[in-house]
């Protein structure tokens, strides 16, 4: 399994969806399953990992600082 | 060797504060305390301290809160209407367990009132003028020397018990000049370190938080019990009063601050006239010297309380004396021309003398 | 893989009490970023205010003093004068700073106090349930302006960044927003600059941040965020109003 570029702390997400607005590629969607806080959290699907540029705008936008972003290192192994 | 100087009471407060190591003063102009900021503005600049003439009384008490939260001895001074404005900050300081000195060179009221000597802020000072139920240390100097000494004591008690201290005086004590002995001051070695003061975390991993908000289950109750226990310890250990001629007294005259000065002269007049009249003056108004009153009224059952008001401290006197003691009151509401003379008080002594069982 | 975005060290790893979509958390993160950037977490003393931002100490891993309502600039004055070596910031909302604390903020700015003042403008009293604030827009409905703010009766929204900029004591005054990635990046830069002004002893630095309050605006987070763009920014223009070199 590839390491995910966008990791959303699902338990801390309040489902505001502002991250979906920020993503230039619209890769983030909202879950249909409630999290422990009772919100529908944001999800970054595994299938989107390849398209993600690690621009981190989703994380910039998140009011709850619930997103961590990683980037592939140039020339480095996957 | 200590030095003697002829100074005004207000200046003695400022000198006492500097002697106690206070280097942060925040104030706002109001008569009759303006000598204090004037003196502090000149001296603190020389000493590299902080002097701010704030935009308001409210700002100045909050600047004091900030400097005190940093662990430094800090003060403000004002007069009655200004002290009313500071009540919010005093409540927050008490709730945040912050020391600090608030000087009230009381003037007459209510409202704008006048600038004459007054003791009508007793309730506001002693029964706490702000919201929420708390206590502050209250001292009442009656001489220029005490303006100096009790300023220093206020800083020590305030640091020890982590509660704000009020020094309550008026223009009579504040503006008269007397000889002042500048006793050298050393910080009591047993004062606890201010391990609560904000500094930036520096080497610490734990935060220091100075606050008065407690929303957790049971937190605020525990916090208030802690404040209460400190006030009880203060009451147990720190009552101060001056007594004279109490051993054979058939009538005890009491009063605080400037009223006590006039009363003392009247007591001396009575003694010269062969009357067995005693004198008992609270120096700390909170804690009120209950023990001294209880003790003095074991044998003497007649008291006369004199105040520059229509009667406020008299309530605490009545709560403190033996059950069978009678407490008479004499006072006039403050205002121009209402300051009682020693002769006037002597006449009151004559009126009440010998009435007790 | 290399981490390109993670939680700043000055910000505690805890969930906040803020409502979904409320941007206080984001603004907290930008302030924490600034502290991390300058390496001043261990030297910083924050001054909390009254309102939704009162729990500053729950979220920032720094020493904090809690000020009475509106008095944060006076408390910060006392703190910074007593400890000039420390880094001091205030964090206030619009009711706190522009209504009950107008006097304190104006005079702290005018004295050129060397601390950083953060002002979150969301056009409402959030904590008390959405009453009209000094920044509530004309026509905006609130708990205490049920028919909308009537400027003839209620006066006009106050543009604090401009008011503060007009004072000679102010070194830096700016208004930013956090409603888009572009604006957030600009806001982060402005907050860092406001800290830099203090650390270089340049004097009073003021950052007004436009923010949303979905709960009290009666909107979802996306609609509230949109309102910042369509209604707030046209009234409260973004920009730098004072920048003393």
Can you describe this structure?
The complex is a heterotrimer of chains A (78), B (357) and C (245). By secondary structure, chain A is α+β, with helices and mostly antiparallel strands. Helices cover 13% and strands 15% of the residues of chain A. Chain A has one domain (6-69): Alpha-Beta Plaits. In chain A, strands 1-4 form a two-stranded antiparallel sheet. Chain A has a two-stranded antiparallel sheet with strand order 2-3. Chain B is α/β, with parallel strands linked by helices. The longest helix of chain B has 19 residues, at 219-237. Chain C has a single domain (24-128, 159-243), classed as Thiamin diphosphate (ThDP)-binding fold, Pyr/PP domains (Rossmann fold, 3-Layer(aba) Sandwich), CATH 3.40.50. The longest helix of chain C is centred in the last third of the chain and has 19 residues, at 181-199. Chains B and C meet through helix 3, helix 4 and strand 9 of B and strand 2, strand 3, helix 3 and helix 5 of C. Strand 9 of chain B pairs parallel with strand 3 (63-66) of chain C.
Main sheet makeup of chain A: 2 strands, antiparallel
CATH fold-level name of chain A: Alpha-Beta Plaits
What is the count of β-strands of chain C? 10
Helix content class of chain A: 10-25%
Could you state the order of secondary-structure elements of chain C as H and E? EHEHEHEHHEEEHHEHEHHE
